[in-house]
Amino acid sequence: MAENTSISNNSGIVEFNHHLVTDQETRMSGSGGSNSGGTSIGNPTASVGTVSVLLPSGGGTKRRSAVGSNSSHNGGSASNSASISADLASLFECPVCFDYVLPPILQCQSGHLVCSTCRPKLNCCPTCRGPLGNIRNLAMEKVASTVMFPCKYSSSGCPVSLLHSEKVEHEELCECRPYTCPCPGASCKWQGGLEQVMEHLMVAHKSITTLQGEDIVFLATDINLPGAVDWVMMQSCFGHHFMLVLEKQEKYEGHQQFFAIVQLIGSRKQCENFAYRLELNGHRRRLAWEATPRSIHEGVSTAILNSDCLVFDTSTAQLFADNGNLGINVTISTNV
């Protein structure tokens, strides 16, 4: 918690003849019943020593998955188990997009399945061209509850297979899912691997200043500008890159709040190796916040929603500002 005085830490019919249809009909025929908006990045005007001066600007395939085998450690039984699990999971492949058909499972009158994402886009069953209807396939739902499905990011290296009830939650946090651009605002739609993030920032967001060192001063200018504003800069130390964000939001008319946070251009696991400290200093006043940096996989919105960052209002900002400019001391340290 921030505290004053003391330091604290897809209309058309899609036609597909999928090889699994025959297998599914053989197995299951007749088994069924009756994704701060609009603001842009602050532009740097000068960098002197360890002080960064930022000027703000307002505004605002077809996939098939396979389950890996651990037979080298557990012998043939593990290999057979993985093969059986993969065979069962394949029964749930959507004949249109090849994603998995997960409960609640609906079928056409002949028992063919299609996933919930593709179904609204279709006028008839893509397999038999019969009406899709709203028939629940309770038998397949029961089977689905016992099948281990591979993570949707298996093609990106995730080795995890898990029950469908756990799949969505895992995939939201999976370290193998693509990273999005960590800059505040909704204008940049870039996605890519972790190793591509910094290259993207240097090419697409050249205005962001990068300072070297574990102890710097982040100087945000014109903090009195109306509306939502973001100030952003990068800090490089300990062989890693950190993104510093100061965001001003108008919670309701006449009441503005500032949120300051540090993100690591890295994974959640890597974040555990670091800590950061944000500090505002004024005449006989000090306001500080200490925490573990968040991965850019999470973004700043979650932290702001939970106030898990340095939070202060306009009146507090004025206590530490100098002619409308606010300096924040930023210190990065390691936990090892």
From TrEMBL:
<dbReference type="InterPro" id="IPR013010">
    <property type="entry name" value="Znf_SIAH"/>
</dbReference>
<dbReference type="InterPro" id="IPR018121">
    <property type="entry name" value="7-in-absentia-prot_TRAF-dom"/>
</dbReference>
<feature type="compositionally biased region" description="Gly residues">
    <location>
        <begin position="30"/>
        <end position="40"/>
    </location>
</feature>
<dbReference type="InterPro" id="IPR004162">
    <property type="entry name" value="SINA-like_animal"/>
</dbReference>
<keyword id="KW-0844">Vision</keyword>
<dbReference type="GO" id="GO:0031624">
    <property type="term" value="F:ubiquitin conjugating enzyme binding"/>
</dbReference>
<comment type="similarity">
    <text>Belongs to the SINA (Seven in absentia) family.</text>
</comment>
<comment type="subunit">
    <text>Component of some E3 complex at least composed of sina, ebi and phyl. Interacts with eff.</text>
</comment>
<dbReference type="GO" id="GO:0008270">
    <property type="term" value="F:zinc ion binding"/>
</dbReference>
<comment type="pathway">
    <text>Protein modification; protein ubiquitination.</text>
</comment>
<dbReference type="GO" id="GO:0005634">
    <property type="term" value="C:nucleus"/>
</dbReference>
<comment type="function">
    <text>E3 ubiquitin-protein ligase that is required for specification of R7 photoreceptor cell fate in the eye by mediating the ubiquitination and subsequent proteasomal degradation of Tramtrack (ttk). E3 Ubiquitin ligases accept ubiquitin from an E2 ubiquitin-conjugating enzyme in the form of a thioester and then directly transfers the ubiquitin to targeted substrates.</text>
</comment>
<keyword id="KW-0862">Zinc</keyword>
<dbReference type="InterPro" id="IPR013083">
    <property type="entry name" value="Znf_RING/FYVE/PHD"/>
</dbReference>
<keyword id="KW-0963">Cytoplasm</keyword>
<feature type="region of interest" description="Disordered">
    <location>
        <begin position="25"/>
        <end position="45"/>
    </location>
</feature>
<feature type="compositionally biased region" description="Low complexity">
    <location>
        <begin position="66"/>
        <end position="79"/>
    </location>
</feature>
<protein>
    <recommendedName>
        <fullName>E3 ubiquitin-protein ligase</fullName>
        <ecNumber>2.3.2.27</ecNumber>
    </recommendedName>
</protein>
<feature type="domain" description="SIAH-type">
    <location>
        <begin position="146"/>
        <end position="206"/>
    </location>
</feature>
<keyword id="KW-0863">Zinc-finger</keyword>
<dbReference type="GO" id="GO:0007601">
    <property type="term" value="P:visual perception"/>
</dbReference>
<dbReference type="InterPro" id="IPR008974">
    <property type="entry name" value="TRAF-like"/>
</dbReference>
<dbReference type="GO" id="GO:0005737">
    <property type="term" value="C:cytoplasm"/>
</dbReference>
<keyword id="KW-0217">Developmental protein</keyword>
<keyword id="KW-0716">Sensory transduction</keyword>
<dbReference type="GO" id="GO:0016567">
    <property type="term" value="P:protein ubiquitination"/>
</dbReference>
<comment type="function">
    <text>E3 ubiquitin-protein ligase that mediates ubiquitination and subsequent proteasomal degradation of target proteins. E3 ubiquitin ligases accept ubiquitin from an E2 ubiquitin-conjugating enzyme in the form of a thioester and then directly transfers the ubiquitin to targeted substrates.</text>
</comment>
<dbReference type="Pfam" id="PF03145">
    <property type="entry name" value="Sina_TRAF"/>
</dbReference>
<feature type="region of interest" description="Disordered">
    <location>
        <begin position="59"/>
        <end position="79"/>
    </location>
</feature>
<keyword id="KW-0833">Ubl conjugation pathway</keyword>
<dbReference type="GO" id="GO:0030154">
    <property type="term" value="P:cell differentiation"/>
</dbReference>
<keyword id="KW-0808">Transferase</keyword>
<dbReference type="GO" id="GO:0061630">
    <property type="term" value="F:ubiquitin protein ligase activity"/>
</dbReference>
<keyword id="KW-0539">Nucleus</keyword>
<dbReference type="Pfam" id="PF21361">
    <property type="entry name" value="Sina_ZnF"/>
</dbReference>
<dbReference type="InterPro" id="IPR049548">
    <property type="entry name" value="Sina-like_RING"/>
</dbReference>
<keyword id="KW-0479">Metal-binding</keyword>
<dbReference type="InterPro" id="IPR001841">
    <property type="entry name" value="Znf_RING"/>
</dbReference>
<dbReference type="GO" id="GO:0043161">
    <property type="term" value="P:proteasome-mediated ubiquitin-dependent protein catabolic process"/>
</dbReference>
<dbReference type="Pfam" id="PF21362">
    <property type="entry name" value="Sina_RING"/>
</dbReference>
<feature type="domain" description="RING-type">
    <location>
        <begin position="94"/>
        <end position="129"/>
    </location>
</feature>
